[in-house]
Fold these 4 entries.
Entry 1:
Amino acid sequence: MAMAPIVRMEEITRIYQMGPTQVEALKGIDLSIDEGEYVAIMGPSGSGKSTLLSLVGCLDRPTSGRYFLAGQEVSTLSDDDLARIRNRRLGFVFQSFHLLPRMSALRNVEQPLIYARVPPAERKRRATEALERVNLSHRLHHAPNELSGGERQRVAIARALVNEPALLLADEPTGNLDTATGEEILRLFDQLHQRGTTILLITHDPDVAQKAQRVLRIRDGILVGSDDPEGGS
Ligand SMILES: Nc1ncnc2c1ncn2[C@@H]1O[C@H](COP(=O)(O)OP(=O)(O)O)[C@@H](O)[C@H]1O
Ligand SMILES: [Mg+2]
């Protein structure tokens, strides 16, 4: 029997109320992502990419439609339940890294485990392992300002992976990096995908998107087709 997809969205809309006017940022999104897939969503500025990623990432709720994450309907959950699901099931990587400045790489990666109340010794062991997976074993005790941009993003990726998330979400993960460093980060995503991590990446950059296994395009809040020969979604 086929497994339930990690992500299943049905007719998702998101309307922002701006005083008297409404901004229809998403106009009926159907999206399905299977375990182990590496999907990129590409679209121009203002097309709804970040709005969609916030919804997939349980940082926001849809105006209408249904969203199932790993089989569980999450569109109607409370803030507390959504926070718990984010911590247990999802890993986030952002353009601007979002690391805690005065803490070592190791402490940064331990943060999601502190929130999940994992005991200190296990926390340290798992954070060290996550940093090994992104080839940073030699930088455990460096603070963000003692690391290069690419190393900072690798710390952020280790932090995103430390809870063994069902899905890794990345919003323009190479946007603040030079081309060579960006390519190094994309090679790391490729490695993680090959080892079984499910990845959803959003970007405006076709060169970044084409590294994924399946590319979807978004325009004016509508997903407009896939280059997947099997017609994935
Ligand atoms: N918090 C918000 N309030 C009102 N409008 C918003 C908000 N966030 C985004 N929008 C609008 O929704 C549309 C999609 O935005 P966004 O998802 O940020 O696009 P992208 O990430 O592709 O640049 C844009 O028209 C944007 O102006
Ligand atoms: Mg955006």
Entry 2:
Amino acid sequence: MTTTKILTPAELQSHIDKLPRMNIAHLPTPLEEMPRLTERLGGPKIWIKREDMTGLAYGGNKARHYEFEMPHVADQGYDVMINIMDYHSNNARMTAAAANKIGMRYILILKNAANRNVQGNLLIDKILGAELHLLDEYQSGNAEGYATKLKEELEAEGHKPYVIQEHLFPRIVGMVGFVQAGVEILEQIEENNLKCVHIIGVAGRSMCGLIVAAKSMGLDWKFTGVTVNYDVPLDDYIFQHSKDLQDVLDLPVTFAESDMRVLNQYVGEGYGVMSAQVAEAIHIAAQTDAIICDPNYTGTAMAALIDQIEEGGFSEDETVIFLHTGGLPAVFTFADQLASFNG
Ligand SMILES: Cc1ncc(COP(=O)(O)O)c(C=O)c1O
């Protein structure tokens, strides 16, 4: 790894502060120990960064993203957002909440959603007032076409619609929220005198933000990202997104693909299908330190954490920090599988 210039936390903060921001997350989120899980696994000390406690309609990583992404979109004159997501999506819910906060109309196209129980994220989407389009399996095959048609109709009515999936740049802007989280975590790590920090969580944009923060401040934190989805070629994605984010913030950082260890072996049958290993991990985290993980994202990352500690994937002197990125309402969508799990 090569870093051309190391920034102090205050200098990094000054880069962040140049961007428009809306304060919608409850910050700082706690960084706390998981003493009972640590004891049960008998490995390195485990801590947890509680991004599930950001607030904003049940919390999660998108609260930080939208602090930066939502003003960016609103400032460009868009007056209605269109989002295409899966029926159980956390993103769908948190976007609805953030849209309400800024007073933006929000249309939600949900795939594979027709005839589902209105439960979990879908229930919250409805309560938040998202304009729901619940597609059946056949329609879901062309959800983008469905969105384009809707967008054209809105344009004909004089609106300026913003289809989230058509724009990458604002989503990169959203990642700044996790560069901010990196500054926050550093402060908490220093307060608690933690050494040899190794952060593990879902491999995605939030982890990219933390990597950018750590590298900008010259920190030797290690990162393990856990894949939850077969669709995204992650190594490239992380590398490229970190670079994009560096450009947004104008940071003097260079990246290597080795900046994050990516674990692909916990995906199971794929996104949206909870494996027995994930169900077990959800129960272990709950029954030790009373942490609730979700069936798609944080449950998979928790399964990886447990397995890696059992298999010696972390060294004893490391402080392992589990990045809990939220997703709690999804537990209710998977109620039947979780309730019938024998663990
Ligand atoms: C609970 C949870 N964790 C992690 C992620 C990954 O998000 P990102 O790629 O923005 O880090 C998501 C995405 O929706 C999520 O819902």
Entry 3:
Amino acid sequence: MRINVAAELKLVGKTAGRHFEEEMEPIDLGGHVLDFTMPISVDLTYVFDGEGFNVAGVLSSALKMNCTKCNKEFEQPFSVDFSERFIKASEEEAEELDCYPFFGEELDLERMMLDLIILNAPVYGQCKPDCKGLCPVCGCDLNITQCSCSRSLGNDRFAPLDELAQLLKDEEEV
Ligand SMILES: [Zn+2]
Ligand SMILES: [Zn+2]
């Protein structure tokens, strides 16, 4: 996404706003793929202070992922608040900046968007906060089926914890 800032460059201190949506190809993070289920949506404001632009807003989208407990595919929305700075620079100077460069009369937001996504997008998640996961014995989805396996047999180590959890749950329900 590129924003033409010819007008803002002449109006120091005047805030402008923009909303846009952009389709994003899957991003491969060395084996883990970020697969978007909707366009990247960005709401931002930008203001020139005489030296550079302060660009701030919210980026949001959703990812397709598999639940860490039951392995079911689900959609995980996410959003990132950001506040970044863009400084006018030549191609050579840009290498040494610790903020984003811009050239001419255009802010190119592509790299900032990619950085925000790669640094902030969730990589793992659960289909729902209280996902019951899979039965360690028969592998059935405990959100859907209540099997008759004695789970403490298959998972002795956690048996006392399971019993405690059940006790607490029973108490809650009384
Ligand atoms: Zn799940
Ligand atoms: Zn089972």
Entry 4:
Amino acid sequence: MAPHTTLAPAQKTLLEALADGRPRTRSDLTEVTGWTRNTVAARLDELIHLDWVVANEEPRGGRGRPPGLFTLNADRAVVFVASFGHTRATWAVTDLLGRTLASRTERLDIGIGPEGAMTKTRDVAKDLFAAAKRPSSALASVVVGLPSPIHTVTRRPIHPWALPGWIGADVGGAFGRVFGVPVWVENDAKLMTIGARIRHFPDVQDLIFIKVSSGIGAGIYSGGVLQRGVLGMAGEIGHLRIAASDKRCACGNVGCVLVHVSTGGIIDALAESGIQVSDLDDIAALANRGDADCTRALRQAGRYLGEIVATLLASLNPEVVALGGTLGSLGDNLLAGMRESLYAHAHPTLTSSLHTVSFGDHEMAAIRGAAHLGLADILSRVPSGTGLDA
Ligand SMILES: [Zn+2]
């Protein structure tokens, strides 16, 4: 069960085709790869022998192979995920298809920096491996999520106004020294986007997921590919300007959508109505009892958000715009405000086929997305052999 086994490129291709966890027949895989049925069958047999693929064959008489279903062996190795938000962190041990074997979520201030986060993670990991009943030797990949853009090439946090103390830190290297396996560092909104797409929209090629919590960030699928951009800034919509706003942002500009569409933005909007709240729990309590001022504040934040999203629609023409994050999934008011604004600002052709939705499972989506990246990272690192090519 060693996670690392020499694989031929053709074997990796089949594993990548099974990486979404959906069972597939030989015919499905013949279609995906363009190979002959015999080639697919031979590669599948090898992968079953190597413990990478599980076959669910229906026994039947007669000649020829039965119409079996094949899935990636999710139990072959585990992925450890550490997903940090600004004020909360979730850790999980998952199988290769992102099913959580053990997890924990706690309040944690991202201001403790990489060293503090590392120390905390080391302690949590011991408990979670014990709870998951998996030896740490089964670990094949670690994925770290951060509420910061991650440089496309160096995989280090960038964005000086977001996470002081983390900028440029070799988070992957530090976690790698502790866990002894390669580490993939990713922006948290992108992790949620990957996980939300796998769960809710596996066949959608063009999708925007927007995380709204302490901050705001988006993940963008265009043509079925997650967009990172040259620096990793694709989807960093927080500092796009709202035309009607002159409110100052910590970045030095005025009118950034972040200062309106975030926990802090809602706290400020409520304060203008004479309501003093201090955190998301207070906002949630007001929203859940239908407080009129809170409803109004969330609707207006949604309208501001829609103004920005209308521009994204014109650039990307997505099929789905999904809201998530602790604020993004708090009732329907933010979503309703966004829709209102979208229909006012975007061309009707762009909104006619658009599906807008909000999700409450963003933390689990981040874990699923991280596990998916972990699997992709494992497959990218499995050394290729020779002589088994299709
Ligand atoms: Zn700003």
